[in-house]
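quick one before i forget lol
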Amino acid sequence: MTELLERYFAGDRAKGFFVHHDNVLGLQAVKNYTHVFLASGKTIIIRRPVYICAEKLGKDFFEVRRGRWVNLEAVQEVRVHDDKRYVFLFEPGTEPVILSRLASIRLRRMSL
């Protein structure tokens, strides 16, 4: 089992950064790389599969569609997008994320 930490080293052989768990808004797979989106607006690109990064970050991260993970603590509001999907809203000025149908089903199962 992976130990969950408050602070992570995000990097590869070329460079790296220390990142606090709360500062990570989301992850996205792009070919063999993972884009790590930070609260500061920065994006870190690391050479590691997205599922490994998401596993290390823990249960606060939810797969909203294939290859895209979101920090649930950053979500301000959840709305119905259409009859089968939800949309996550974040702070003003941040682009909303539409969940896939499968992710919407998983989200419904999580609710009370």
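fyi Strands lie at 7-11, 16-20, 24-30, 33-38, 43-46, 61-65, 68-71, 77-80, 86-89, 97-98.
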